[in-house]
Amino acid sequence: MNIVRSAQVGQGGPVRIACMDLSKADLGVPFDKLTATLQKCYDEFFLPIWGYPVTLYNTTKPQPSDWRFVYFDNADTAGALGYHDITKNGQPVSKIFVETTIAAGEVVSVTACHELFEMAIDPVANLWAQGGDRTEYAYEMCDPVEEDTFLVDGIEMSNFVHPAWFEPFKHPPGTKFDHLGLLKRQFSMTKGGYMITMKAGKVKEVFGSKAKEKRFKQEDRRCHRSEYRKPLKQAQLVKPVSEKTAEKNMKALLRELQFTADALPGEPVTDDRLPPRR
Fold first, then answer.
1. N or C: which terminus of the chain has fewer CB atoms within 10 Å of its end residue's CB?
2. Strand (E) positions, 109-216?
3. What span, in angstroms and rounded, lies between the C-alpha atoms of 22 and 130?
4. Domain residue extents for the chain
């Protein structure tokens, strides 16, 4: 019998995730289509393996009890809007930095899928799996295979690992360790992947190849969810602003995005939604 569990942090019941597009950059896919494709990918491929249902919806006015999945231009924008932490008002937040993603030569839809999968299983980035040598491995669903993708309705989505990847014991032949079947054992990576490990309290990144390590070190990693796993002095974060300043900045940004939307053709939408900007 299949058992479906509900992802939860501090509350019971199925999780609703408010998707907010606060970026001025092009997502590469219309916002509504991207969210619909992420939901389809999650329901058809991720949910049967991991068993945590979520519901995505687009809005500019998230409900207080809902998690947040927000597209920003970069970490500086996120900080200016009060999104400097991995939670907001007590609820988990995933941040997709659109300009940063594009600058790194990556695809926004893949980054979004990556963040969604990891948020669902470890919303506050504090879970670890212990290996046989007492090395601990961060509970990140996509990092080990993050450059490997597949298509859903013509849109690139991220590969992800299976639960067996986090289990240190021997598995029977035929066990899948990732969705695309590229990995042959637990705690392994493809050449475009990496892992966050911790041993004796020291956190570090381990890379699937020298080329991956070089690309990784060229990225702007500020406020990436992996940074919250590190000791505070080691983490690359941004300075928080006051709540008053964040509210002021948010109102100004929403006005600017609304002005941009009004300058483009689009279908009428409800009051809590921005018209499509692309």
1. N
2. 128-130, 136-138, 149-152, 155-158, 194-199, 202-207
3. 37
4. 15-262
Question: Which regions of the chain does DSSP assign to beta strands (E)?
Answer: 15-21, 54-58, 67-72, 87-88, 91-97, 128-130, 136-138, 149-152, 155-158, 194-199, 202-207
Q: Which of 136, 36, 85 is nearest to 243 (CA)?
A: 85
Return the number of other C-beta atoms located less than 10 Å from residue 21's C-beta.
26
Place of tokens 């009004």: 262
CA angle 170, 174, 180 (to 5 degrees): 110
φ/ψ of 253, rounded to 5, equals -65, -45
90 neighbors 10 (Cβ within 8 angstroms): yes
The pLDDT score that the predictor gives to residue 122 is 95
In order of 148, 151, 157, the CA distances from 154 in angstroms are 15, 5, 9
Taking only Cα atoms into account, the Rg of the chain, rounded to an integer number of angstroms, comes to 19
The DSSP call for residue 161 is: B
Question: Can you give the pLDDT at residue 74?
Answer: 94
5 or 167: whose pLDDT is higher? 167
Contact (Cβ atoms closer than 8 angstroms) between residue 22 and residue 81: yes
What is the reported pTM? 0.87
Q: Which residues, including other chains, have CB under 8 Å from residue 278's CB and lie 6 or more apart?
A: 26, 27, 30, 31, 264
Winning range, highest mean pLDDT, from 11-15, 178-182, 249-253: 178-182
The tens digit of pLDDT for each residue in 216-228 reads 999 998 888 888 8
Structure-token match 């940063």, residue found: 100
